[in-house]
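Might I ask for a little of your time on a matter of protein folding? The record follows directly beneath this note:
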Amino acid sequence: MDQKGLDGDKSESRLYVGNLDFRISESDIIKMFSPFGKIISEDFLWHTRGPKRGEPRGYAFVQYTTREEAELAKEKMNGKLIRGRPVVVHLASEKCFLDSRNFQKTMKDKKLAGGSGSKSAQTDRVAKIAAIKHKLKSLEDEGCSTKRPRLKSEDLIGSGKQSDKKC
């Protein structure tokens, strides 16, 4: 094997592949990712303990010879639906940085929207309750309700059956 790209650049040509359907096998991963370059290694992770022992964990790592091959595979495969699930593909070296950037952006957006995450969640809940109350009020104003209408004397005499009509 060529030593070029294995020492310093190893993490730059290694992909994290996540959100995999549990029916996908190691050979499926190799078949999906080999069109983008030469794969020098593939790590398919399995549960080693507990009730799921021997079952796939739902993610893998694919190592290419160059960063360019890895970037191409990332570009083509990230978000692609495979067995009904969008696959997540990132350079393994940037995965932790992407997650922390997304977390920081999410927290910044929440603060701009009205404080901490929990305060924002409470505001959302209050708004939802108010919307439901408003909808109920409008239904009552229209004369429609979920209550069964009162029986009238003509309903009892006419057919012998109760009316099941609701608004």
